[in-house]
Amino acid sequence: MGYNWEKVRDLRVKEILKEIYLFNELSEDELDALVEISSISRYDKDSLLFMRGDVSEHLLVLIEGDVSIYKHDEKGNEIVIGFFSPYSLLAEPAILRRIAFPSSAMFKSDGAVIKIELDAFESSFLSNAHVSREIIKSLLGKIQLLQQNIHFNIATTAKEKVLHLYEDNASITSKLKQYEIAALLGMTAETFSRNVKQLVKEGRLIKSEKGYQTLLKRDES
Length: 221
Known about the structure:
Layout: H1 5-19, H2 28-36, E1 38-43, E2 48-50, E3 58-64, E4 67-72, E5 78-84, E6 89-90, H3 92-97, E7 104-107, E8 111-117, H4 118-124, H5 129-154, H6 158-168, H7 170-173, H8 178-184, H9 189-201, E9 205-208, E10 211-214, H10 215-220
Antiparallel strand pairs: 1-8, 2-7, 3-6, 3-8, 4-5, 4-7, 9-10
Helix pairs in contact: 1-2, 6-9, 8-9
């Protein structure tokens, strides 16, 4: 008797959905219904998840790997909007409004997303109090990210940007190349390197086996 691969697939998707903060309070029956409208898509490193101008018919939940959301300015320079790790909702403001993506998304490592059929999700799950509350939290997080980017690009010095990254998002840096970190901060690789050296010289950054750490992070470890 052979394997029922469809059943195996459904069980795996269900177990993954249980781990996602958005769905961890759903009943078994609700999870089974969610599995029916969900699928897993895998991507290689440097693959595009979506491009600016695309419109999605699926809610996207990152379950493996890391994704960079970015756009280009009028000069063609890449501006990184955000960097996301599992289990993040991706681009839900545009998806839920059913408008074109204002930015593009690329995998910075091999990874995977769960795609949930949007029409079915809205009709069956958006009224769930826990699900709607977590979506609101995620949307508020995107607003905070936008405010942070505005602050970075208007009011913060290059040195402060670098220090803030290593204080609050140090796990990101081990997964990115130097020019990618610089792009995330909206500066050239040369500017990033120069400011890292200055911060090390001032004793505000310390070289470690995992890269660079602030004094605060070293005291916590």
